[in-house]
Each structure stands twice: as structure tokens, then as C-alpha cells.
Design goal:
The structure holds two protein chains of two kinds.
Chain A: H1 17-39, H2 44-66, H3 77-100
Helix pairs in contact in A: 1-2
Chain B: H1 2-9, H2 19-45, H3 55-58, H4 61-86, H5 90-120, H6 129-160, H7 169-195
The chains are: A mainly alpha, B mainly alpha.
């Protein structure tokens, strides 16, 4: 399939199929690294940072290459990134509400 | 042919983007908020076991890792299906669409099996707030995967009946966007819910 050298349509500017396969291989490798890190004995903060970082890389790779956001019109990024920012803001606000109000704080 | 199809399908808009495609991205942005809320609730309550089984005692990380890998690879087969229709290769389109649907079904079967094991271990939707938030989050995601599978099978059926020509490649693209979104949500869930250790 990749050896066929076929390209995605040029009017969309999408990458070749070989690129998709390479990205998928990297995603598989990163997933393996995540699982390995989850079993390694290390301080929790370091483990959390490493796992979140790898997760962000996987997220960005799928959105950028498979969903073509890296190649499509930049305007399309706005609604999606806004959604992600608002989701993060929602978590921060709820977390603050829970921790500031001692009665509602989770144990 | 492909260029002609593009000329036919692209509408005149002030953004230069097809309205349907922009609407799809806005929809996915709103879905980020939905899953953001569900993940937030889980993260805030994951230590509320209230005497029931605790999450990290019931997880089977190797099993869930295989499920995650299956869903991740379904994103590859989905994007290969899109590439196939964009070059007019109907045979490969059907192959990759069916492969994506089968990988999705494998993931859902794994989730059902995992839920069954959890219930047998005493971790249910009723056992604790952590249980309720976990099952609501993962079930919502599972429902999204199921809807995606149904859409993929519809595309497969349309293709076998000759109702999905190269000119309708955008239909595969939009359903593909939805499918990849389901995949990236699982990337986040797998890390935040399964892999990251709960605070002691």
C-alpha cells in the first residue's frame, strides 16, 4: 500500500500514506513507553509529568496528521482549540470551587 | 476527476472552508467540553471509594493497553480509507472501512469484558462516587465509539451499493474526523484515568 507510492489528493495537501503508517508506528511506540513508565517505580510528580507529556504528543499527532489539522485551513483550529481551552478552564474552576470550599473538598 | 469533484463540492463561503467541515470542527470543539466535564468529575471523585473496591485495585492495565492500541490503530485504518476514496480506490476504501469498524468492535467488546470483570470485583456504578463517575465517563466514550461503528458500517454499505463515489469523499472525511476524535478522547482517558496514579 505504501509501496505503491500513492498520494492523498493534492488539492487537500494531505500527506502520503507512508507518513500515516510512520505516525501510527510512533504512536504505538509512545503507548509502549507510557505503559512502561506506569510500571516504573519513580516519584509520582515525575511520573505524572512524563505520562501527560507523552499523552499530549499522541493527541497532537492524531489531530495534526490523521485529522489533517496541520495541513488544513488554520481557521479550523480555532473552534477545536477553543473547546480544549474551555474544557481545561472548566476543570480548573471546578477544582478551585472544590478546594476553596472545604466542606465540598474531595478526600 | 478529483479536481473536478472539488470544484463541484466546495461552496463559496467567507471563510473559504466548507460549511459542513467547519460545523464538524465546531461540534468536535463542543464535544471537548462534554468530555472535559466528565473527566473533571472523575478526577475530582476518583478517590471516593467509600468502602467499595478502589479503582487501581481493579484495573487490568495490560488488557486496557491492548484495547487502547486497537483503537489507536483504527485511526490509521480510517485515514487510509480516506486516502483510498480520495484516489478513487473503492476496493481499498471498503477494506479499510471494514477494518476500522472491526477494530472499533474489538475495542467495545474489550470494554464490555472489562466492565464485567469490574462488577465481579465489586466495583460497580452503585459502589461509590468513583464508580459512578468512572462508568459514566467510559460508557459515554463507548457510546460514541458505537455510533462511530454504525456510521462506518453505513459508509461500507453505501460503497458496496455504489452510492459512495470519489466525489463524496468528504462524507468519509467527516466521519473520519469523528472517529479520530473518539480516539484522541481515549488517549486522554487512558492516561488520566488508567495510568496516572491516584493521589494517596
Amino acid at each position: 500500500m505504501a509501496a505503491g507510492g500513492t498520494t492523498a489528493t493534492k488539492e487537500h495537501g494531505h500527506p502520503k500514506e507512508r507518513v500515516y503508517v510512520i505516525v501510527a508506528l510512533w504512536l504505538a511506540l509512545i503507548t509502549g513507553a507510557e505503559i512502561t513508565i506506569s510500571y516504573i517505580k519513580m516519584p509520582d510528580p515525575a511520573k505524572i509529568v512524563a505520562l501527560v507529556l507523552l499523552s499530549v504528543i499522541k493527541f497532537a499527532a492524531v489531530v495534526g496528521y490523521f485529522m489533517h489539522l496541520k495541513f488544513d485551513n488554520p481557521t479550523l483550529r480555532k473552534p477545536f482549540i477553543t473547546g480544549i481551552i474551555l474544557a481545561g478552564a472548566l476543570y480548573t474552576i471546578v477544582l478551585m470551587a472544590f478546594t476553596l470550599h472545604s466542606n465540598a473538598a474531595p478526600k | 476527476m478529483a479536481q473536478q469533484a472539488t470544484t463541484v463540492e466546495v461552496h463559496q463561503t467567507s471563510t473559504g472552508i466548507e460549511n459542513t467541515k467547519l460545523a464538524m470542527w465546531v461540534f468536535l470543539g463542543s464535544e471537548c467540553l462534554l468530555f472535559g466535564a466528565l473527566i473533571s468529575v472523575f478526577l475530582l471523585y476518583r478517590n471516593h471509594a467509600l468502602g467499595g473496591a478502589r479503582l487501581h485495585d481493579v484495573y487490568d492495565i495490560p488488557f486496557t493497553s491492548v484495547s487502547s492500541f486497537v483503537l489507536l490503530m483504527s485511526s490509521l485504518t480510517m485515514v487510509l480509507a480516506l486516502a483510498a476514496i480520495q484516489r478513487g480506490d473503492q476496493h481499498r476504501l471498503r477494506t479499510w472501512l471494514l477494518a476500522t469498524a472491526l477494530l472499533g468492535m474489538t475495542f467495545i467488546s474489550g470494554q464490555v469484558y472489562e466492565f464485567t470483570i469490574f462488577v465481579h470485583k465489586g466495583f460497580t456504578v452503585h459502589s461509590s462516587v468513583a464508580g459512578a463517575s468512572f462508568f459514566i465517563l467510559t460508557s459515554f466514550h463507548g457510546a460514541h465509539v458505537t455510533v462511530g461503528i454504525l456510521m462506518l458500517l453505513s459508509l461500507f454499505g453505501m460503497s458496496t451499493r455504489g452510492m459512495l463515489p470519489q466525489e463524496k469523499a468528504t462524507a468519509v472525511e467527516y466521519i473520519g474526523l469523528y472517529w479520530h476524535f473518539v480516539d484522541i478522547v481515549w488517549i486522554v482517558i487512558f492516561t488520566l484515568v488508567y495510568l496516572i496514579p491516584a493521589p494517596k
